[in-house]
Amino acid sequence: MSQPKTPDNPVAELKQADQLLIHKRCAEAVLAYQKFLQKYPKDAQGWNSLGIAFLCDSKFQDAVNSFNQAIVIAPTYSDVHNNLGIAYMELKNNQEARNHFLKALEDPQYPKVGPYYNLSRLAYTEEQYEESRALAKKVVEFSPKETAPRLVYAFSLEKLNRFDEASAQFKEILKLAPENVEACYHLATVLKQQNLQCEAKEYYKKVIDVDPLSDFAQKSIAAIKGLSCTKSPN
User: Which of 45, 150, 197, 198 has its CA at a distance of 20 to 30 angstroms from the CA of residue 142?
Assistant: First the structure.
């Protein structure tokens, strides 16, 4: 069971709260969902949405409590298990996070991309880079145009010193999202590791040009000082 049906009558009341959440008005969305649940306390979808709003508002234990309430009402509500895993991951409770991501994967009708991606992030935070690489690669195969899983894939390759592959992935990300500063910075760092110092310098300069005062730009400025590039200026 991927998602329980919401009764017809409360749909209009949920709509306003959903719009607040879509526009990242997190605290207001929390209040709106709480008001909805006062009327419909057995609505699992409402509790799931409240949990997502708490995640948005960085209130992770409140999110856990809301998701658990949804599971009490609908134990096989797979999206709640995936969301609960995210909340536990934020609370650094990695074992519980893993358990709930795996629970979501047990549902053959639930999209695999979300739990696989979250498991890849979890493995990466635990410095299990071979596992995070393999999981992220699977997500990339499912969703080749999504940059977030490709970033985890590229970061994992970088940590495994597989620099040629990491470089190719960072370049692919920049094709999909040319303004992705994080990918640009890490590509420059990988190119530096490959001793392609002139090319690394060009990517560091692109990071600096986006926002000279950002953390990535300041790191890039420091990195450029240590490069030895004899390429003639254009």
Answer: 45
